[in-house]
Write a structure and sequence with these properties.
192 residues, alpha+beta, 3 helices, 7 strands, 34% helix, rod-shaped, transmembrane helix, transmembrane
């Protein structure tokens, strides 16, 4: 008889515990909450990284605009035969060295800000127009760089041949504007 009992499958009695075949509802909900917390944390990290990338991109665009405008103006002021700032426009005249084809004499370049903002994100642009021997017409102006405030361009002769150029870049995310001032020396006047 003992031999037969050992061969039959055992059936648990009323006090014996049964083996579970899956998760309980509480275990499943705890796992879902933990997974949700992990996903929210990863999403927050992604959002912070994206915002940081956007800020760095805006700063680099401003820096590139400022660098380009500065180098262009310094180059023209250094070699100028005449420099003047009037009504928000910097007029620079210099001898043509293959800067403008079809012009055998003096090139006149005028730098000024655009009359309106290009867009809310880009601000005003620094425009340049050039002509041979005389100031260019309004149609001859083309934008060089953007990211300036409405009154963000000013020039003043502080000494003989030394020009102080000021730029004010458009407001950043925190609402503060960045102002930059640099000096450019007109070599023709400095030598005299």
């Amino acid at each position: 008889m003992n031999d037969i009992r050992s061969r039959l499958p055992s059936v648990p009695g009323p006090g014996a515990s049964r083996r579970q075949a899956g998760f309980t509802l509480v275990e499943l909900m705890v796992a879902l909450v933990i997974g949700l917390i992990i996903i929210l944390g990863a999403g927050q990290l992604f959002l912070m990284g994206f915002q940081t990338f956007r800020q760095i991109e805006l700063l680099s665009n401003k820096q590139a605009a400022l660098t380009f405008a500065t180098e262009t103006l310094i180059r023209d002021i250094r070699r100028a035969t005449d420099v003047d700032f009037d009504n928000g426009a910097l007029t620079v005249a210099f001898t043509n060295n293959s800067d403008m084809s079809g012009c055998s004499g003096t090139v006149v370049r005028v730098y000024r800000l655009s009359q309106a903002a290009i867009s809310a994100n880009e601000g005003w642009s620094l425009n340049m127009g050039q002509d041979c021997e005389s100031a260019p017409s309004n149609a001859a102006f083309e934008p060089l760089v953007t990211a300036f405030n409405e009154d963000g361009f000013f020039a003043e002769e502080v000494d003989d041949g030394v020009w102080e150029i000021s730029f004010q870049l458009m407001a950043g995310r925190n609402g503060e504007t960045d102002s930059f001032t640099f000096n450019a020396v007109n070599r023709n006047q400095a030598i005299e």
